[in-house]
Amino acid sequence: MEPRVQDPQQPKAATPMVEIRGLRTQFELPGRTFTVHDNLDLTVRRGEVMSLVGGSGTGKTVLLRQILGLEQPAAGEIRVLGQPRGSLGERAAASRVGMLFQHGALFSAFSVLENIAFPLRELRTLPTSLIHEAAMVKLQMVGLQPDDGAKMPSDLSGGMIKRVALARALIMDPPLLLLDEPTAGLDPDSSDGFVTLLRSLHRDLALTVIMVTHDLDTLFELSTRIAVLAEKRVIVNAPPKDVIAFQHPFIHDFFLGQRGQRAMELLREYPFAV
Q1: Which pTM value belongs to this model?
Q2: Hey, which residues does 100 pair with through a beta bridge?
Q3: Are 252 and 228 in contact (CB under 8 A)?
Q4: Which of 82, 134, 135, 226 is the most exposed place for a label (fewest CB within 10 A)?
Q5: How many Å apart are CA 55 and CA 74, to the nearest integer?
Q6: Contact status, residue 263 vs residue 256, Cβ threshold 8 Å
């Protein structure tokens, strides 16, 4: 297996790619207010692959959507590349943050190439020929063939849908990529191939990645750090080996319960995690 990008050692003065302080997320339900996050802090530095882990209802995907700007917290601040998330315009935000949604979220009436090109058509004033060329470059970057550009989403396998959605997330060349369960629903071979692709893109494009995943293989193969959400906040944010050693009931159940043997095998298999 090819060497893995190590956990980057950033200068203290380096501006974090994402900085979250005092975040509170609430949802109004009939007769009560449900709090998902309360005084949550998280820092993601340039070049990291930060994985968010937590039980159901801990707001992992909600946090991704807040960083993307699709949802707003009740309180607290989210800064992307040193700027408050709310101050970024749509064009600036799209050029800085790309997102791969769990089920791809492709437009069923658009071809593969049209799906990939969509953000450029909407947010940039460029000649059609340049948009087509850029979309074709991204199509091939994710391991698809030029002929695949004419296909419709209904013609694609699950693995191909993920790759098309990834190409669309990268079309604006964002330095920050958000991944929501990137290997969910894929068979083992497709999952392995997609993880290998993500690892290569992280290295070659110097991406910073924030990922939500429940899959241990994906978690250990890609993550430089893991942030565990519990008790409405991040209880630990550290390299994988240090997270596993952290004393907390959720961490024990998630990593050292029924899946504990597999977690130990993965720590030995991927030495960067140790």
Answers
A1: 0.87
A2: 179
A3: no
A4: 82
A5: 21
A6: yes
